[in-house]
Amino acid sequence: MWQLLQRFPLRQYCGGVLFIVISLLSLTGTAQDTIPLRNDSIVLIGDSVSLVPQHSVRKATLLSTFLPGAGQVYNKKIWKVPIVYAAFAGMAYLIKFNHDNFRKFDNALLLRYDEDPNTVDEYADIYTEENLRSLSDFYRRNRDLSVIGITLVYVLNIVDAHVDAHLFSFNVDDDLSLQWSPLLQPAPGQASAGLSLTLRF
Predict the structure, then answer these.
(1) Over the Cα atoms of the chain, what is R_g?
(2) Half-sphere exposure of residue 194: CA atoms within 13 angstroms, side-chain side
(3) Distance (Å, rounded) from C-alpha 117 to C-alpha 42?
(4) Closest Cα to residue 63, out of 151, 169, 150, 162?
(5) Mind listing the pLDDT tens digit for each residue in 123-165?
(6) Mean per-residue pLDDT for 6-28?
(7) How far apart, in whole angstroms, are the C-alpha atoms of residue 54 and residue 110?
């Protein structure tokens, strides 16, 4: 036994085992560092591999839900933000304009119906009661449509951010091409002619 230990010294054996264990641990640590996270993706750039954060559709949708235009900023479509807010401002202006006119003609109509000779509306010599009723209904309807319009702008802002996030990594470079060519397929007893479309990436 002593002769065996002299042939294989314990220090060298332990040193070799320790070297192997440390090497395996360092390789394991390196492997863990390069494993992509759930929201990351591996991208090949030239001869190197890099870890790129994946674009989150859910985040873009939630951002535009809680703050209109924020999803567009996250999708790097900042030029859409002024359009979103211009649409909101336009709809808000229409709501106020139509509501103010509705209240004005509606109040004038109420003064006509109060049967008090001392209260005279500003349109006494201009519009009849039927005219006031028509104008009041017209502006009320336009106000309600404007409220629906601003709601649609809000929903479209969310949908736009959602769709843009889906298409964020879509390839739209110059290498995309659609080519067509005639196609002849043999069939038992007859041949069928057609058109072949090929999309090249």
Answers:
(1) 37
(2) 7
(3) 82
(4) 162
(5) 878 888 899 999 999 999 999 999 999 999 999 999 999 999 9
(6) 44
(7) 61
Residues 6+ apart with CB under 8 A from 178: 197, 198, 199, 200
Backbone angles phi, psi at 45, to 5 degrees: -120, 105
List, in order, residues 6 or more apart from 143 with CB less than 8 Å away: 94, 95, 98, 99, 102
Model confidence, pTM: 0.60
- Chain-centre distance for alpha carbon 130: 48
